[in-house]
Specification:
heterodimer, A: 109 residues, mainly beta, 6-stranded mixed beta sheet, B: 114 residues, 4-stranded antiparallel beta sheet, globular
């Protein structure tokens, strides 16, 4: 079966750095997405990786290793507004998105 | 104005009632999706449509039906609602062009079935 694993919850301090990991086992791979979702709101797109390596976008970076079935989202200079759930999703061989359950990130002052 | 809209935003209904959730988009995208989200679970795909004449079942289509009335409109129906269909429902669209296939979500409909 297809599976995406990410931690259920993480806690970090304002101003610090946090890394949210995602491992996947899917039938084929056509890219990996990270979305941010604030409580009760819709997910919004953060990043897309299809090749190995690091993609940097401001305070957020996303890394992919296809051989390891692994990705991480790195958030720097954490702000209180970064408190949200972060969803990892993989586009499989049929171009269907398989979603992880999300990681709830709690930021403390 | 929002690119993807959903109505209603909140709905409380009783077991056995027929419910329709509506989604409209102004992004000009061909592809539209319906998901449900439950606490502790990822987004689960109910139905998707790649164009007006193409409708496909997703992971959890039982108990649901859809209608693609136009490129911009995709409705989800619960023919006879049951309590375990209580969830947050999202509509999403993608252009299906290029490699990114980014999904744009509506604001969600919170459905409670008593």
């Amino acid at each position: 079966g297809q599976n995406i694993d990410q931690p259920t919850e993480m806690t970090a301090t304002e101003g610090a750095i946090v890394q949210i990991n995602c491992t996947y086992q899917t039938s084929g791979f056509n890219g990996l997405f990270w979305y941010q979702q604030h409580a009760g709101e819709a997910p919004t797109f953060l990043s897309y990786n299809v090749l190995d390596g690091l993609e940097e976008k401001g305070r957020f970076s996303s890394f992919l290793s296809r051989s390891k079935g692994y990705s991480y989202l790195l958030l720097k200079e954490l702000q209180m507004k970064d408190s949200a759930s972060y969803l990892c999703a993989v586009l499989d061989s049929n171009y269907q998105l398989i979603w992880g359950a999300g990681t709830k990130l709690i930021i403390k002052p | 104005d929002a690119d993807v809209t959903q109505t209603p935003r909140n709905r409380i209904t009783k077991t056995g009632k027929r419910i329709m959730l509506e989604c409209s988009q102004t992004k000009g995208h061909d592809r539209m999706y319906w998901y449900r989200q439950d606490p502790g679970l990822g987004l689960r795909l109910i139905y998707y449509s790649f164009d007006v004449k193409d409708i496909n079942k997703g992971e959890i289509s039982d108990g649901y039906s859809v209608s693609r009335q136009a490129q911009a409109k995709f409705s989800l129906s619960l023919e006879s609602a049951i309590p375990n269909q209580t969830a947050l429902y999202f509509c999403a669209t993608t252009s299906g062009q290029g490699d990114t296939d980014t999904q744009y979500f509506g604001p969600g409909t919170r459905l409670t079935v008593l």
